[in-house]
């Protein structure tokens, strides 16, 4: 078989998946802005999560991320870092210590200080900016001590940015882990890989 670009794209998608290794005492920022139960299921049933490697909308979103990150590097040179990882240990009310980890798409050093860049792709611009995305960026502002962040949306209808100055506190973060609600948003179950086995699944009637 000759040149196979599709295979290359799926290899990239698998590499991206393997970078998000699940560890029992680590909470990714993305876990804190969605149903926290998904994290538990990902630990128990990692093979179910593998299907994400083959979802075209996720793959095209990753390719757009890579493209914009390359453009930022071209334009800002040494003043930009991409895929910046940070972590902080927090203590839960039980006394257990857990690690909060996050990876910002990019951080640019400017006259105003360090500015986070978070890139989102979506099928439409309806209701942007979405609450979980705003919260994710507010946690990055806390975790990485950023001056502020820009939430960038790339959609077929609109390409725009929102400035996010707010930050969550350590107490907010601890509260999300120690007092979770399942699901965090009722619509989540419709798109959840684990809805096939979850007793907390909320069925939203279309009537
Ligand atoms: S089905 Fe709903 S409640 Fe269960 S893990 Fe998924 S999102 Fe959470």
Lay out the secondary structure.
Elements: H1 5-19, E1 26-28, H2 37-44, H3 46-49, H4 56-76, E2 80-91, E3 97-110, E4 113-121, H5 131-143, E5 148-154, E6 159-164, H6 170-178
Parallel strand pairs: 1-3, 4-5
Antiparallel strand pairs: 2-3, 3-4, 5-6
The chain binds iron/sulfur cluster (SF4).
Biggest sheet statistics: 6 strands, mixed
Structural class: alpha/beta
How many structural domains can be distinguished in the coordinates? 1
Helicity, in percent? Answer: 25-40%
CATH class: Alpha Beta
- What are the distinct ligands in this entry? iron/sulfur cluster
Give the helix tally. 6
What is the H-and-E element order?
HEHHHEEEHEEH
Short overview:
This protein has helices at residues 5-19, 37-44, 46-49, 56-76, 131-143, 170-178; strands at residues 26-28, 80-91, 97-110, 113-121, 148-154, 159-164.
Description:
- By secondary structure, this protein is of the alpha/beta class.
- It has one domain (5-174): Lambda Exonuclease, Chain A, CATH 3.90.320.
- The chain is built from six helices and six strands; from the N terminus they run H-E-H-H-H-E-E-E-H-E-E-H.
- It has helices at 5-19, 37-44, 46-49, 56-76, 131-143, 170-178; strands at residues 26-28, 80-91, 97-110, 113-121, 148-154, 159-164.
- Strands 1, 2, 3, 4, 5 and 6 form a six-stranded mixed β-sheet that branches.
- Strand 3 (97-110) and strand 4 form a beta hairpin.
- It is globular, with a radius of gyration of 18 Å.
- The termini are far apart.
- The model has no long low-confidence stretch (mean pLDDT 94).
- Bound molecules: iron/sulfur cluster.
């Amino acid at each position: 078989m000759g040149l196979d670009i599709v295979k290359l794209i799926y290899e990239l998608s698998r590499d991206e998946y393997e970078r998000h290794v699940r560890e029992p005492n680590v909470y990714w920022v993305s876990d804190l802005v969605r149903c926290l139960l998904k994290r538990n299921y990902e630990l128990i049933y990692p093979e179910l999560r593998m299907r994400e490697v083959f979802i075209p909308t996720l793959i095209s979103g990753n390719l757009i991320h890579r493209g914009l990150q390359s453009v930022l590097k071209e334009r800002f040179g040494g003043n930009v870092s991409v895929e910046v990882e940070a972590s902080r240990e927090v203590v839960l009310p039980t006394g257990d210590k857990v690690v909060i980890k996050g990876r910002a798409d990019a951080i640019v050093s400017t006259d105003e200080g360090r500015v986070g860049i978070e890139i989102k792709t979506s099928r439409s611009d309806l209701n942007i900016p979405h609450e979980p995305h705003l919260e994710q960026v507010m946690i990055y502002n806390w975790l990485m001590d950023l001056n502020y962040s820009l939430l960038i949306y790339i959609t077929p209808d609109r390409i725009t940015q929102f400035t996010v100055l707010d930050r969550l506190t350590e107490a907010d973060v601890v509260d999300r882990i120690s007092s979770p609600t399942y699901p965090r948003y009722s619509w989540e179950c419709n798109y959840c890989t684990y809805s096939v086995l979850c007793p907390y699944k909320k069925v939203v009637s279309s009537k």
